[in-house]
TrEMBL record:
Pfam families: FMN_red
The protein, known as: NAD(P)H-dependent oxidoreductase
Domain of life: Bacteria
InterPro entries per record: Flavoprotein-like_sf (IPR029039), FMN_Rdtase-like_dom (IPR005025), NAD(P)H-dep_reductase (IPR050712)
Residue ranges occupied by any NADPH-dependent FMN reductase-like domain in the UniProt entry: 10-149
Cross-referenced Gene3D superfamilies: 3.40.50.360
Lineage of the organism: Bacteria, Bacillati, Actinomycetota, Actinomycetes, Pseudonocardiales
SUPFAM superfamilies (UniProt xref): Flavoproteins (SSF52218)
Length: 192
């Protein structure tokens, strides 16, 4: 399969927090970089670009950012979502962004149907990291996505991500890389 053709295979990364270069955004970048190494085209919509009005099914108009998110998901062959864990749950920022996937309900490929979705949660403590990942999996299934076999629960009290694309814990880097590879590999297989 020539992934440089007119219809390249695309993997979209969604997540992070409002802080530029947040730990969850850095984790997302590691997974996306690993996906790109498999030959897919990647796109990132980080936390600061996820500042959207609360999702409202009754509202017909969408902001420019909301349209960009919806169109990016529509065109994605795979998705990677990384959320910070706040008080044992995913961030409102990421949850609201995922709510916008409802706008794809009438598409030929509705919601996240047929797409591999890689998931990771970054939280200051194991409890929030694990429960946030569980919630991301539940949301992915509700949106008809295929959660990758491996998900990442990362305790930011123990693992620190750096600006260079690494982390203080190689196991966390390996987990994130494998998540990105699984999403890319699934997307490439489905594109054949």
């Amino acid at each position: 399969m020539d992934v440089t053709s007119a219809n390249p295979v695309r993997v979209l990364g969604i997540g992070g927090s409002l802080r530029d270069g947040s730990q969850s955004e850095r984790a997302l970048r590691i997974a996306l970089d690993a996906a790109a190494e498999r030959g897919v085209q990647t796109e990132l919509i980080p936390g600061p670009e996820l500042v959207l009005p609360f999702y409202d099914t009754a509202a017909a108009e969408r902001t420019e950012r909301a349209v960009r998110l919806i169109e990016a998901v529509r065109g994605a062959d795979g998705v990677i979502v990384v959320s910070p864990g706040y008080h044992g749950a995913l961030s409102g920022l990421v949850k609201n962004a995922l709510d916008y996937v409802e706008d794809l309900r009438e598409d030929a490929r509705p919601y996240l149907d047929g797409r591999a979705v890689g998931l990771a949660a970054v939280a200051y403590g194991w409890q929030a990291a694990v429960t946030t990942l569980e919630q991301l999996r539940t949301i992915t299934h509700a949106l008809r996505g295929w959660a990758t076999p491996l998900g990442g629960s990362i305790n930011s009290a123990e693992t620190k991500f750096d600006e260079g694309g690494g982390a203080s814990d190689e196991k966390s880097v390996g987990t994130l890389r494998l998540i990105g590879q699984q999403v890319a590999d699934h997307a490439l297989l489905r594109s054949r």
